[in-house]
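Appendix B, record 7
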Amino acid sequence: MINASVAIQVLPSVEGKDVIRVVDKVIQYLKSSGLNVYVGPFETTIEGEYDQLMEMVKRCQLICIEEGAPSVMSYVKISYRPEGGILTIDEKVTKHHQ
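C-alpha cells (predicted):
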C-alpha cells in the first residue's frame, strides 16, 4: 500500500564534483527499489509504504559514508497517511510537465 511519500536531499561532505558521484549512488539505490521515484534538481521523491521508506532513508545515509563521505547531512520531508490515499507524485507534478 502506498501510504507515504518521502523527499530526501543528501549532502555528503565531499569535495567538488565528488558530490555528484556520491549523490548518484544514492539515486541509483532509490531507483533500484522498483518504487515510483522522481528526481529533481535538489531532492528526490519516492512513494511507498512508510516503514520501507524509513529504512531507505537510513540506507541513503550509509551509502554516502560507504562512498567515502566522512559525514552526511540530509533534509527529509515526509507525507504519511496510515490508511493510504496520499497525493501521488504524478498528481502533484504531471500537469507541470506537459
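Remarks on this record: The radius of gyration is 14 Å. The domain at 4-96 is CATH 3.30.70.930 (Alpha-Beta Plaits).
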